[in-house]
Amino acid sequence: MLESYQLDAGSAVSTMAHAELQCSSQPSISVTRRQSILFVTSEISDYIKAGGLGEVSAALPRALRHHYDVRILIPGYRQVLSQIGAVEEVARLSASYGIPACSLGRAMTRDGLIVYVLLCPELYDRDGSPYVDSFGVDWCDNDIRFARLGLAAADIASGNGDPLWRADLLHLNDWPSGLASAYLAWRGQRIPTILTIHNLAYQGNFERSRLSHLGIPDAAFHIEGVEFYGKVSFLKAGIYYSSHITTVSSTYAQEITRPEFGCGLDGLLRARAEEGRLDGIINGIDESWDPSTDPYLVSRFSAENCRGKRANAESVRRSFGLALNTGPLFAVVSRLVHQKGVDLAISAAETIVSQGGQIAFIGQGEPRFEAELQALAGRHPGSIGVKIGYDEGDARRMYAGSDFLLMPSRFEPCGLSQMYAQRFGSLPIAHRTGGLADTIEDGVNGFLFGEPSLNRFKDAIKRGLDTFRSRSRLIAMRRAAMKRPHGWDRSASRYQEVYERACHAAFA
């Protein structure tokens, strides 16, 4: 055990008694009491997001707060502090090893969700995203930046944060918070921890030389610990030490236990699945994704009356420099990276254009894909439009105005874009993988293809084009897509079950 984490006997007994009272005194935590949950995340769309984690971090705690006292912990990035409003300092967290001291601030969202913010300008007061600088390069001190997040989460759970509140359970998300469960384990504290894997490909791997800076005991640098092919892995630490693992779709939970999707962690994840400690819970989308009320749309509509889609399609065509016509409109709203199958979408564009279709692309990512898309638009003026970057209004109007969303991801843990598209009456054409397989019913509310190859993708596109030519079938599929359950209620209930199991198992 790390020397600086030694607890005196009285505090250790007090901590354990508190946790046992919270977790064990009632047979059903979700019904009979409001347990305290700390949701630890590196992004939240209220203030800053780099991907789907930001959306989930905003929506899931809100879905859970009817049953729990849920609070969020996030680093105090420059973008967060510029938007969050008044922040009250409630604690000072001391330095440990190479991890600097920081203040713990408490603030509140407009709808009353309490957010704890780590106030540490030397780590977080920077331009760029949560993970990279303005040039897209990883911050060289990301290990320290996110070890600070994990250590703070462990401190709050241990009763060393807000003096008026402590967490009974930590809900961790992806590698940036993965060390929290490890710090608790090294302290000998049995506080339940849930780790949700949103994308296994991002692991937070750092050099072994960083062990002492991060406060990781030498004994933990082992295959039964944080060691991963000679490096320190924050994600592996979270998987190894957490009470329970979830990921964001049932299909992805199965896929990551196999070598082709497991990113080197399939053996450990297979063991967790065999122990009953790995679950797949599909994400939902929040209530703002409603075409009958969305303020970004130029014309609103519903499943019963989709006539407003035409006005949104015309808006998209004008915005992307496309010719105004009544042919099928395809959309791509995506990070421009290999995982998302952007190369397949580029290669399939000729087929779409030759059949009278148009494509609007929006996103940013790898420079080679950005350049290829610009060249593609140059070869097909009026038929293909491209915007490098991201704009929320553009994206929502694209979902609302398009007939089809192209989503040929090679792997997709959950995916939100296909659900946004369905809710707005755009039929996704997607690879049968991960959450895409769990949310799209082939031929009913979208189209799936079984192999991430150009030929199989083109076959699915042709099926979509055939459907477009059959007005009655197109309308029926649109309605089915729009009426598919998209909310968080069912997923929140699944998380309640996981919380209860983890809590009881911690003190069995």
Number of domains: 2
Q: Provide the low-confidence segments as ranges.
A: 1-31
Measured distance between first and last alpha carbons: 23 Å
Q: Enumerate the strands of the largest sheet in spatial order, edge to edge or round the barrel.
A: 3-4-5-2-1-6-7-11-12
Kindly state the number of beta strands: 18
Instruction: Indicate the multimeric state.
Output: single chain
Instruction: Estimate the strand proportion.
Output: 15-25%
Mind telling me which CATH architecture of the largest domain this is? 3-Layer(aba) Sandwich
* Mass-distribution shape: globular
Structural class category: alpha/beta
CATH homologous superfamily heading of the largest domain: Glycogen Phosphorylase B
Percentage of residues assigned to helices: 25-40%
The largest sheet is: 9 strands, mixed
The CATH C-level name of the largest domain is: Alpha Beta
- Tell me the CATH topology of the largest domain: Rossmann fold
- Average pLDDT across residues? 92
Task: Count the DSSP helices.
Answer: 20
Radius of gyration: 24 Å
Polypeptide structure, described:
The protein contains 20 helices and 18 strands. Helix 6 (142-157) crosses helix 7, helix 12 packs across helix 15 and helix 13 runs parallel beside helix 14 (367-379). The radius of gyration is 24 Å and the shape is globular. The strands form three sheets. The chain has a nine-stranded mixed beta sheet with strand order 3-4-5-2-1-6-7-11-12, sandwiched between helices. It has a six-stranded parallel beta sheet with strand order 15-14-13-16-17-18, with helices on both faces. It folds into two domains: 34-285 and 489-506, Glycogen Phosphorylase B (Rossmann fold, 3-Layer(aba) Sandwich); 308-483, Glycogen Phosphorylase B (Rossmann fold, 3-Layer(aba) Sandwich). Helix 17 (434-439) links the parallel strand 17 (427-431) and strand 18 (447-449). The chain is of the alpha/beta class and 508 residues long.
